[in-house]
Design goal:
Strand order of the largest sheet: 1-2
Distance between the termini: 35 Å
Number of helices: 14
Strand content: under 5%
Low-confidence stretches: 159-163, 306-320
Shape: globular
Number of strands: 2
Structural class: mainly alpha
Helix content: over 70%
Order of helices and strands: HHEEHHHHHHHHHHHH
């Protein structure tokens, strides 16, 4: 694969970044009249419907639930479905609920900044669980910078005066927890047996919706809700565009331009989330938000770019 990028790759990357930024605005608007668990249940269900249509058009089958053994005499559960169940809960259902709950108390732009902790946590977990991944000096420095950025964003006053604004602090911690869950899901995906990525995305959204729906029925009693038209429209956007279309474009772009090109969403997404929040919701983040954004993005750059690999190779060459 050459270094030259097609115009279509850049357009898809721009669309992904825009969807990333808008998702936090849409979530904020949806939360005005729909609770977070119900949002996540409907969102994943709509995402599955979109991906199912894509699969039908492409002729992609779902993975078999059971596989034959001993010449077809015995059947057992396909192990890939066990992995997909774990990913759908840890890497999709739980983080969506955590982020949705946290956004009740956190501005959309700040939520986008906090989500930049996902690639940083992924680097750390990859060093622990993925063979061949190393926690280099650059990656560790990137993680520390990102962590300092999170501390700047949360602010020491939030910890010193926990009782004064407890919900805001817990909301930020919930979003960070969701980012870490997404990172953990990515680690599990790397260890998963081969499967068509669109099929994997469809199964994940289906299982997440099946997991979340009874929880939403028990906790939120959605039949008693009176959602506004704006909330319904933004919920549709979260499901069809931010979940279904985003997943489809993500895998298409990874195949076309590579994962390293795709990773630029980690740098471009958070600033766009801040911009969307300011333009649409009239949010006005403080100076600490921009300082934190700079520190976090610098940390992501250190942890993910070729600089990390270059420093690791330099370190190896210095060994006797």
């Amino acid at each position: 694969m050459g270094t030259d990028r097609k115009l279509s790759d850049w357009l898809m990357l721009g669309l992904l970044v825009l969807i990333f930024g808008l998702a936090f605005v849409w979530m904020k608007l949806t939360l005005s009249s729909i609770p977070p668990i119900t949002i996540s249940a409907v969102r994943t269900g709509l995402g599955f419907c979109f991906l199912l249509i894509v699969m039908k058009v492409k002729g992609t089958p779902l993975p078999a639930i059971f596989i034959q053994e001993n010449g077809g005499v015995e059947q057992r559960l396909n192990p890939i479905w066990r992995t997909l169940v774990i990913i759908s809960i840890i890497g999709l259902a739980v983080p969506q609920v955590l982020i949705g709950w946290g956004q009740q108390y956190v501005d959309s732009g700040l939520a986008g900044i906090l989500m930049a902790f996902m690639p940083l946590s992924t680097v750390l977990m990859a060093a622990l669980f993925i063979p061949g991944e190393h926690l280099t000096v650059a990656r560790l420095a990137g993680f520390i910078l990102g962590f300092i950025g999170i501390c700047v964003l949360v602010g020491p006053d939030a910890l010193l005066h926990l009782g004064d604004n407890r919900e805001a602090l817990l909301g930020q911690l919930a979003i960070i927890g969701g980012a870490i869950c997404y990172g953990a899901g990515g680690i599990i995906v790397q260890r998963m047996p081969p499967i068509d990525p669109i099929a994997a995305g469809a199964v994940q959204t289906l299982l997440a919706s099946l997991f979340l729906t009874p929880v939403a029925l028990a906790v939120d009693s959605p039949w008693t809700l009176s959602p506004s038209l704006v909330s319904l429209l933004t919920l549709a956007g979260l499901g069809i565009i931010s979940t279904g279309l985003f997943t489809f474009i993500f895998f298409v772009l990874v195949r076309s331009a590579g994962a390293s090109f795709m990773s630029q969403t980690s740098y471009l997404g958070p600033p766009v989330a801040v911009l969307m929040g300011a333009l649409i919701l009239a949010e006005r983040p403080g100076a600490n938000a921009f300082i934190a954004l700079a520190l976090i993005l610098l940390g992501v750059a250190l942890a993910q770019t070729k600089l990390a690999a270059a420093l690791y190779m330099f370190k190896r060459r210095q060994r006797p």
